[in-house]
TrEMBL record, chain A:
Record keywords, A-Z: Endoplasmic reticulum, ER-Golgi transport, Membrane, Protein transport, Receptor, Transmembrane, Transmembrane helix, Transport
Transmembrane segments: 55-77, 98-115, 121-141, 153-173, 179-202
Cited InterPro entries: ER_ret_rcpt
Domain of life the protein comes from: Eukaryota
GO-annotated biological processes: protein retention in ER lumen; protein transport; vesicle-mediated transport
Family assignment from sequence similarity: Belongs to the ERD2 family.
Membrane topology: Multi-pass membrane protein
Molecular function, one GO term: ER retention sequence binding
Record carries keyword Transmembrane: yes
Protein name per Swiss-Prot or TrEMBL: ER lumen protein-retaining receptor
Recorded name of the encoding gene: LOC108979597
Amino acid sequence: MNIFRFAGDMMHLTSILVLLLKIYATKSCSGISLKTQELYALVFLARYLDLFTDFISVYNTIMKLVFIVSSTAIVWCMKRDRVVRRSYDKQLDTFRHYFLLAASFALALLVNEKFTFQEIFWAFSIYLEAVAILPQLVLLQRSGNVDNLTGQYVFFLGAYRAFYILNWIYRYFTETHFSRWIACISGLVQTALYADFFYYYYISWKNNTKLKLPA
Amino acid sequence: AKDHVTKDEL
């Protein structure tokens, strides 16, 4: 464990807490893409298949459980909670995310560390995570104004993978045979997708204006 | 040896 990875995990956890805060405090999920949340729930379920077979550390196990439980709770809440689901922007959240699922799985069958069930699902979760934010970014552009909590949610979610890239660079130079090129390349793509959001987020923060993404 | 590299990252 290094400071970059720990900071990344804490930013990831913060993004989920901010999202939970927004949904429970405002009893609203307006501006949140249910499709992105469904994809994230899948990412964690596909990635943490080794939850009960490989014990890494207490921290690792607890964080995996937190991510699985929180992501499924958010999906359940946006679909089932009578008050929250009324504010879901169904007509704006129209990204065809099944393509992202199919493409990620196809790529995982072709490019993986080993052609085994667990490795294919791990690679699938890595590729899917890189593109899972797309429905959310499209929804933000369509809905124009972005409320503070939603903006902070996306910001922390983007920042977490940026810190993971620093973690991979650090591990590359400090550990002998460290090769995580699937996660690294995918992480670069994932962070690049946030580039324009980060730019407009920084502008809105600098000018202290409301965050607006150009349609 | 395990059939997969243990993934120690989240």
